[in-house]
User: What shape does this take?
Amino acid sequence: MAKRTDAETLSKHIRDELRTNILRGQWAPGDRLQLNQLSEQFSTSSTVVREALTRLAGDRLVVLKPNRGFFVPTVSLDELRDITELRCVNEQFAVSLAIERGDLNWEGELMAVHHRMERTPSRDAENLPTIEWAAAHQAFHAQLLAACGVPVLIDLTNTLSDLTQLYNRWATSATNWSGRDLSAEHQAILDAALARDAETTSRLLAEHYHGTLEAITKLGVEVGLPATTA
Assistant: This one.
C-alpha cells in the first residue's frame, strides 16, 4: 500500500510540474513530449511519466496520438470561440450557485485572492504574463465558483480555464491591448459578487471572457496562432 501511495504521489508531482511547464509556454504548440527526456528530467521510469501525460491528456492539456506519442496541443481561434462560449455558460451557472450558497468564509477568501492578484506583477521583462500572476488570476476565478457545491462543474471550469490560459500565453500581448483595464474588470466582478448580485456578476464574467476572445482574435494572425487544432 505504501509503495502504491508513493507512486501516486510521484505521478501527481510530475503531472503538476508538466502542467505548469505547458501553461508557462516551455514547449511550443504541437511540440512532441519525449518520454525518455522527461524520464531523465524527473529521474523516474517512463511508465510513471506516461501515466502523468495520460492524465493530462484527459484534461486536454496534452494530445495523445496513437502510435506517435504525446504532444502539446495546437490551437485555433475557432476552438477558442467554442471554449469561451462553453466557459461563459458553465461559469455563469456556477457563480449564480456560489453567490446563493457562499458564506462569509467564501467572501473573505474571495477578497484575499483578489488582493493577492492585484499585488502580483502581471508582466515580466519580455512582456509575457508572469507565472505568479497567471496562478493568482486563476485562483481568483476559481474562488468565485468555489461555493457552488458542484464538483463536476468546478472540474470542467478548471479545464476550460487551463485551455484559455494556453491561448493567453501563446498570444503574448493579447490580454494587454490598448483600451482594456483588467484590474477594473476584476474589481467590478468582485464588487458584484460581494453585493450578491448574481445577474450582474454573470454578465461581467461573460464580458470579461469575451474581451479576451476579442483581443486574441484581433491579434491571432499577428502572433502566429496555428490555424488548425491537433
